[in-house]
Design brief:
Chains A, B: Its EC number is 2.5.1.18. The structure is a homodimer of 231-residue chains. The first copy, chain A, is an alpha+beta fold. Chain A contains 11 helices and 4 strands. Chain A has 2 domains: 76 residues, Glutaredoxin; 129 residues, Up-down Bundle (Glutathione S-transferase Yfyf (Class Pi), Chain A, domain 2), CATH 1.20.1050.10.
């Protein structure tokens, strides 16, 4: 397994890029990381992901794969050590179901809350809380995720939901919103603590102090686009 | 493999339900089909899919699985005969990538076009055509899908994209829109022909004559909701 054969096109602050890095680290796969400038996309990115023109893109032996959850499956199927998905088909289905739910109902909605205002913003905040309530009950109180036992390992669903631990607080700060009240979501809060202290995760997070400025800039750009479209 | 152990909660006209039926038929798995009334959801549905309250739900040995693409993976992992996904991890990644693309950029956008009006509708139509152009080039001209050879089998990506063959023409008719011009998309048109003549598919399609009335009713409901929200 030579380091040269695996490349990752990323963006330091992207939660969906970071989840690919976590998966590669869990597997012990060495890779070359190539930082992209999303305001001035490289020819390499446009060539490797012509459909979405977005990071992450994983390149393995010259073959490019896009979409972070698709990449996680690829990584798990290609490097068998330290499996990310459970072995049982039903448990695999649950992990995939909740990963998709977390992307669509939490991550996307939280970002929308950050990029909106007034009544629309409030609606997104409520939707996001409702989705997190479901994850609190069905995921974070369960056995699908990194547990307290020594033998418990980080897996696909931890990695997919991992952005909650480090990005959601930034969105809350930048958007002056509160979504994740630890008193309301104790199981989620306990998982966040376990996740952030995991050896693979704690050294592989974007610098917290640089994130608010970036998130503020990006969310304002989206908000301004929306205001323009409404005119 | 007893027929009693597999149940499918569905809706006759739903393309995402039908894809689960196709997968089960390809595998030769017998199942009990339970029709749902989406205007009056059964307690069974609410109990089995409390998160989304939507069909399809596959129940296998009492365990419920929701989300059609997640179900396809489950079916493929549980019944190994006639594999739906390719064996090679990279080919699997491509199939998953395009299945997701087809759901988000074609199916969802075509439905949005049907449930909108004026400039918004035109924007959706253009977006849908652009997405289909990409699929024409990258999917339907390629080897990812049911080919002309006798040995070519129907797989995950055919099943995921299959709604294009029988539902999209109904959306076009009901919405008075044209998206899929066979002259512009010859490879797509040829695949549609092969798909609709496949032994598993041709006897497992909703009755074409009943679909427009249903689609008209549903799309008008969504359109009216949007008009109300705008007031």
């Amino acid at each position: 397994m030579e380091s040269k054969e695996v490349k990752l096109l990323g963006l330091w602050v992207s939660p969906v890029v970071r989840r690919v890095e976590w998966a590669l680290k869990v597997k012990g796969v060495e890779y070359e990381y190539i930082e992209e400038d999303i305001y001035n996309k490289s020819n390499l990115l446009l060539e490797l992901n012509p459909v979405h023109k977005k990071v992450p893109v994983l390149v393995h032996d010259g073959k490019a794969i896009a979409e972070s959850l698709v990449i996680l499956e690829y990584v798990d199927e290609t490097w068998k050590q330290n499996p990310l998905l459970p072995q049982d088909p039903y448990q695999r289905a649950l992990a995939r179901f909740w990963a998709k739910f977390c992307d669509q109902q939490v991550l996307r909605i939280a970002w929308n809350a950050l990029c909106s205002e007034g009544e629309e913003k409030q609606t997104y905040i409520e939707q996001c809380k409702e989705a997190l309530e479901k994850m609190e009950e069905e995921v974070f109180k369960g056995k699908q995720i990194l547990g307290e036992d020594e033998g418990s390992n980080i897996g696909y669903l931890d990695i997919a939901a991992g952005w909650i631990t480090h990005w959601l607080p930034v969105y809350e700060e930048v958007g002056s919103i509160q979504i994740l009240d630890p008193l309301q979501f104790p199981a989620t809060a306990a998982w966040i603590n376990r996740f952030l202290n995991h050896s693979v995760i704690k050294d592989n997070l974007p610098p917290r102090d640089k994130m608010p400025a970036y998130c503020h800039k990006r969310s304002q750009e989206f908000l301004n686009e929306k205001r323009e479209a409404r005119k």
